[in-house]
Amino acid sequence: MNTNRSISVALVVSMLASIGLVGVYIAGGDRAAEGILLGLALGGLGAGIVLWTRLIDIGPETEEREPLETSPEDRMDPIELRPEGITRRSLLVRLLVGAGGALAAALAIPTLSLGPRPGASLFRTSWRAGVRVVGEDGAPIRPLDLPLEGVLTVYPEGAVGSADSQTQLIRVGEDLLELDPDRQEWTVEGVVGYSKICTHAGCPVGLYRAQAHQLLCPCHQSTFDILRGAVPVFGPAARPLPQLPLDVDDEGYLIARGDFPEPVGPSFWNVHSGDDS
Amino acid sequence: MLGWLDRRLGADSWARSALRKVFPDHWSFLLGEIALFCFVILLATGVFLTLFYRPDAAPVVYEGPYEPLRGQDVSAAYESVLRLSFEVRAGLVMRQIHHWSALVFVAAIVVHMARVFFTGAFRRPREINWLVGMGLLLLALGMGFTGYSLPDDLLSGTGLRIAYSAVVAIPFLGPYVASLAFGGEFPTEGIISRLFVLHVMLFPGIIIGLIAAHLGILWRQKHTQFPGPGRTEQNVIGKPFWPVQLFKSTGLMLLTAAVIAVIGGTIQINPVWEYGPFVPTTVSAPAQPDWYMGWLEGAIRLFPAFEPTILGVTIPSTFIPGIVLPGFFITVLALWPFIEQRVTRDYAEHHLLDYPRDFPVRTGVGVAGIVFAVLLTLAGGNDVLALAFSIPVEAITWFFRIAVLVVPPLLGWLGYRIALELQATDFHPLRRRKGVVLRRNAEGGYDEV
Questions:
Q1: CA A75 to CA A77: how far, in whole Å?
Q2: Which domain holds residue A215?
Q3: pLDDT per residue as tens digits for the range A109-121
Q4: In order of start, what are the domains of chain B with their CATH numbers?
């Protein structure tokens, strides 16, 4: 097939595909047909143009490279900005630099409007002593509502959906727990509560491996042993998931004994300093 | 027409020299052009998408045609993406072409950059353009990240959350910078509109400026060329811009667009309706970012649970792999022309390109760097690999923890050795060895023809 005919075929294909594209649009549209026809329309035209270069018989040309650097006689004369007697260290020059710097700082200040001072927000959640533990639907929970090895995402009453307060309850056999002595009071009927936010990169630690009693973060595979205070046993997370101290009220519903003892979520430089507000 | 312009602008003399500018011919010089064309496609499809997208985190009830989500609370942003995908004619194909060309855009930039690296095209006088190119790469990554965060689906929300965690991890400044960037503690309502402004205005604006600089500098400095007959440091040999190169480039642009259109039409990408809207308490698993983020994902997955507290300052375990490592990698890459100059003491101008074999150390370092990034990317899919091969994810993680330290130097050294070997034997792995034609002469001996 000679070049002229190849070009003709390519251009005709392109034209037909363009018409087809309009047809598909009018008919209601279809992702795959649109993509293929658009591809043919563009591709036919592109192929035609590339083939066209075969018709243009221009041999290689040589272009000389001129030096990039300006020759000494063409160089700009230096312009003396500082009259005699004014040195780099003189007051005028310093004032100029100072005024420029002060203006830059003043103009940069509105950047601070972009967000609040982090302050205590990283150290606190909505959990308070005596607040009831509620589920996704806002209903309070009794310890035995959870089946053995059952998992439930809970919130403080009045803050359902709160991202930093989300907590995971797990009920295990009470004799299996190996918590620190000062945490013995923090569980009820084998129900333990841990922050659901990974201490590594903040993903919800959503997978529970019941046989191993481990919580696994699906993002980066940090793994926490829930029998021993959710200490990390694998993956990049270095801090345990903070444990929520639990209790029951007079009606037998789960309540918190207080906020998490440590900040929840990803670590930051003063995470171990306690509340610095 | 030209006469009309010439009388007003004196365009003729300029056009004459511009149109006759010489373009050396080599397939690898087209990689950067492909990146440019992807950007054109991104602008064209992006404008269309912008007309339908709503950068708004306010909750609405979904009432569109997609059955599984009907009646669910979603953000206005997410809802507008679903509407664009299901209700706007040609909307879905535009969205998919946009996403696919973003993937090809970054890929073309990376491959183009590798070409420039391995052939030494960054050497004097082209250091500035190397830096401009680095800026373009970083902005392309920024465009990718802000872009795939806009639909406000579960996957992109996870990406934002990890980005927030990495920023918070910066010693001293982290909590402040993160609060300023996100407008408070994650998740915040304002982040969607901020990402939108970056994605449709600030970043593309800077990219357009940098592309202009990139091409302007290239135009001024003229092209590099591979060594060959007649080619010297003082000339450029190739086809003129008009008409040959312009035809070829236009054709290549259309062909690039054609391939991406077919892929975008037929291969599904980022089906945000399957991921569902972003909910702070949920995460999709296995979650995979777009390919160019894979190396960072891998780095923070592999880094061990090492979080020392020194003098009351905790170094979070995302800080080193998530901030320091990419910062170091990018800095070394950006400064490579200057590092190489300093080490080799070669400050001379170079317009003739190296073959990778000509500079074995550079080739070795490049190979090691690429292998490192590829291994990290694979490690970023450790859960996918675990699922696919039924191996515990712990074993895969440990394999990669060791591999990223051992394999890159090994393969880098291999690359170095191969380059030396090729130098010695003058064998070209890609080029077919041309036979030598011999002719028997009258004396019975042989002459080369």
A1: 6
A2: 133-256
A3: 999 999 998 878 8
A4: 22-285 (1.20.810.10)
